[in-house]
Amino acid sequence: MSNENKCPKCNSANTYQDANMWICPDCFHEWDPAESAQAAEEEAKADMALDCNGNALVSGDSITVIKDLKVKGILSGIKAGTKAKNIRIVEGNDGHNVSCKIDGIGAMYLKSEFVKKA
C-alpha cells in the first residue's frame, strides 16, 4: 500500500476511502489528503527563516543588522549596519533562529526579523 493511504495519526495501513475523506478504523482518524498536503506546505513556510523584507535566509548567507540591538554584558550592543558572514539557520528558542559570529563580540543568536540579507 502507498504511503499516502497510511493514517497520519497512527501510521496504520488499515484505512479506507469514503468519498474524498480517508478513515482509519484503528484510531478513528479522518483526513483529506489534499488538506494535509496543503497543511504540510504551510508548516514548511512557517519553519523558514525570513529576513525583514521577507527574503528566505539559508545557511551560508551574509546578513546586515537593521536596528541597534542591546546585548547583555556589552555596553554598546550591536549597531545598525553591522554585518555578519556565513550564518547558520538553527531551530532556536524564542525566535532566535540565526546563528552568526559578529566581529568584536563573538558568536550570537539573532532573530531573523532584525536582519536583512546582504
UniProtKB/TrEMBL annotation:
Keyword check for Hydrolase: yes
Domain (Protein YjdM N-terminal): residue spans on this chain: 6-32
Span of domain Protein YjdM C-terminal: 50-118
TM regions (residue ranges): none
Keyword match Nucleotide-binding: no
A GO MF label: hydrolase activity
SUPFAM superfamilies in UniProt: Prokaryotic SH3-related domain (SSF82057), Zinc beta-ribbon (SSF57783)
This protein's UniProt keywords: Hydrolase
InterPro entries: YjdM (IPR004624), YjdM_C (IPR013988), YjdM_N (IPR013987)
UniProt-listed NCBIfam families: phnA (TIGR00686)
Family: Belongs to the YjdM family.
Protein name in the entry: Phosphonoacetate hydrolase
Organism of derivation: Williamwhitmania taraxaci
Lineage, opening ranks: Bacteria, Pseudomonadati, Bacteroidota, Bacteroidia, Bacteroidales
